[in-house]
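>> Question from a student workshop board

For tomorrow's exercise we were told to take the sequence and the ligand below, predict the bound structure, and bring the output to class. My setup keeps failing. Could a helper post the expected result so I can at least see what it should look like? The ligand is zinc ion.
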Amino acid sequence: MTDPVCIQLDLQHNDRQVIQVRQCWSPTSRRLSFQLPVWTPGSYTVRDHVQHLHSLGLLSGTNPVAVKRTGPSAWSADLPDLTPLTLTYCLEARDLTVRTCYVDSSFASLCMAAVAMHVDDQRWHPHHLQVLAPEPWNVHVPLERGTDGWLASDFDALVDSPLHAGEFDLEGFEVEGHRHDLLLIGTPPGGWPDQLSSDVASVCSGVCRLMGTAPPAGDRYQLVIQMLEQGYGGLEHDHSAVLQFNWQALAKPDGRRQLLQLVGHEYLHQWNVRRLRPVEYRPYDYARPVVSEGLWFAEGITSYFDLATTLIAGFSDRSTFLKDLGQELSRVLMTPGRSLQSLSDSAKEAWVKLYKATPASRDSQVSYYGLGAATAFCLDVRLRQADSSLAEVLRELWFSHGPQGRGYSRQHIHVALDGHTPALAAELTTWLDQPASLPLKAVVADLGLRLDSVPTDRPHHGLTLKDEQGQVLVKRVASDGPGADSALVPGDELLAVNGYRLRRAADLALLLQSRSAACITYVRRGRLAETHLNPDKGVDHWLLDWDPGANADQRALRDRWFQIL
Ligand SMILES: [Zn+2]
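>> Workshop helper replied:
Here is what the output should look like for this input. Compare the format with yours to find the bug.
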């Protein structure tokens, strides 16, 4: 039996927001190299977790060993012999997101990709985790429990296991006969929704029906919901998902449904993207960005089905599903960047674009989440026309790749589609590689539905503004709006409209109201200037709705499509 790598986390300096890490192992070679991952699987951008690390030291037995920094996140050392090693370092933990680390006097939320050191010759060895937590905290990790800690089968299993410590509400729920844990962190002002754990269980069971299997995680699954003042997102793991939601969103009429859709999204990732994974991520390379166009499938298909999870679970109806899907399609259609960036490029450029997006990014890029969901919708309808479904294709890909741990590529998706409707594989190539190639309107019409633009009810200027320290600043000039014909660019400070002082961003529409052409006074780099803005009647959003004139064939196809599974 191989000696495990022992990693001990000391959270007892939580009031200083520092984690002390102690990692011990027996080297197999005198030439040692180790690195801290530069990114977190599931979040495809370089996060340089090493920026939070300090006080690193290495002992061989009790003797200090000189280490050499070979890269921003990498070290090496020449060892005198193969005596067991102890590596120690500290991590500042002040970043409360699902892919980073945070600790304070009340709780800890750790993403282990930002914590554990990857030692080259130890990756596939078991890793033993111990945690020193302040009293009376409990520690939650979705790993096998041992007598004095937790055991991960290898480094990958360790970094895939988020750690939460504190005093939390812990509830159990059951999915297809498997017991899962629900960890609730941060009670919202109005309290947690009634029957949350049974609603979560229904959504998760619906996802199992979609995939045609019991949960691959079995009895070891932890769903963590952090309810914050601000924040939204999730990160998927083999045996867990960590969700962040905010109580303002939860208090809205659609809040509970959106929270359950986020649960459905992350739970479906247990199959799609975790175990059914793009070939480029088998195995993960934690040391550098790895480009994969498969992210459109991983996130787009999951985003499409997450809208349906509340319908499958019986928490919403067909009209609500249309509303949710319509909002997703509207966001895509309102993104001018979809005419410049293809879906496959959007996925491949995730590392440098999606995760670094600004408001102005919408004019040159499109999210593979939204466009991927729209593409999934088109695929599903085309497959329904061939008496099949996207759910069926997803299940086939799962059974041919997931349980075996085989990565998939575009070719495998083509082969899966080919078995149902050969023309669709060729069509998908166009949808993936050609910007703005998705036949959304035609697909919607085939279902006896309508997708119509809804005009704005105020003068449309195409500017996105923000109030900052008493200034009104331009955040975005939409490339398809009237602002694009003015001289304005992001960063300009707007001072006046037709000589009237503009003090708040919200007042721009008011000042534009009575005139068609307006003179805008603005400041750029400390200099005053003027430009003209000609508001028009723009599109506010797109609406997906029933077509009262739908014929029998369209209604029959629509009924089949609404079955989802
Ligand atoms: Zn996702």
